[in-house]
User: Fold Peptide/nickel transport system ATP-binding protein from Actinocorallia herbida.
Amino acid sequence: MTAVLEVGGLRVEAETAAADLLLVDGADLRVGNGEIVGIVGESGCGKSTLVRTLIGMLEGNVAVAAGEVRLGGDRVLAPGHDVTASVRGARVGTVFQDAARSLDPLFKIGYQLREVLARHRPGLTAAQAAEKSAAVLGRMGITEPDRVLGSYPHQLSGGLRQRVAIALAVITDPELVLADECTTALDVTTQAEVVALFRDLVRDTGVGLVFVTHDLLLASDLCDRIAVMYGGQIVEAGPTARVLESPRHPFTAGLLASVPSRHTEGPLVGIPGAAPRVTTAFQGCRFADRCAAASAACADDVGWTGADDEGVRCRHPLDGAPHPPTGQPPTTTDKEGH
Ligand SMILES: Nc1ncnc2c1ncn2[C@@H]1O[C@H](COP(=O)(O)OP(=O)(O)OP(=O)(O)O)[C@@H](O)[C@H]1O
Assistant:
């Protein structure tokens, strides 16, 4: 599968008055054409920072310290090199949690779609732009495109606004779409509709999709592969079924045990403790102080074990046995064995 997105060794740091923080540490990620990759993890683990970095949307105190981002083979971001402005909107579409951030309350939807095309596809005639606008709304399952094109955002329901936000992201036929918690604010039925819409979009157009969510069930419904983040690092990655049925990182297992699932019958088990704030000076496994399997060896930095697309960052990975249907995390391998 041709890679539309290749992220290698990405390290993102933030300067703050208190300390220099490590927001993303050594992230490797690959998304193929027509592939959906989920990024999951607790709040504050760095999911948004990672996806925003891919398109150069960095706050003033944040910088890329190492690694690179390639889009369709083109190097778009690395320390001291940032051409993401040229791909944002044109080759990469973005959908965020709050449709209000994508839509301008002052302009009708038809105008906003035409504006995006005028900026990124300037060769189109007015008639072609109108045709494309109606077509993209149709693809979003919007049955009354004329009414929507003539409406202001506040005249649409929340679900419809999010569909329009997705339409704005994909009307330019991008190679990659980044969706960051874009279903979180929606009710469950609308969430399911948006997920189905993404699935159809990827199947029909071959676009690559990065889907950021804290909702493992949603990720399991939609994603081909999953990358689990913790403390700014990708700690486990692999095909969705493998990661969710036989998690290898204790954090992934804890996350699974703490969410209700269709397989869960027993009580839900939370992960004690809180996610760390990681400084650039931090050494060792970020999860060690919350991990039942941690040993003294976890105080040293932990490397990645496995292939690029499938592996785990842990000195005491779980044994890979299927995740028990009770919602309890599987047992770990012997601490001393690593
Ligand atoms: N500009 C910044 N300066 C300092 N710290 C930051 C900055 N931006 C983000 N952070 C910190 O980086 C960490 C990761 O934040 P991020 O928003 O990427 O997490 P997340 O996994 O997307 O969480 P959520 O799901 O709550 O959005 C958090 O601790 C956050 O406070």
Summary: Residues 14, 16, 21, 23, 41, 43-49, 59, 61-62, 214, 277 surround adenosine-5'-triphosphate (CB under 6 Å). Residues 188-205 form the longest helix (18 residues).
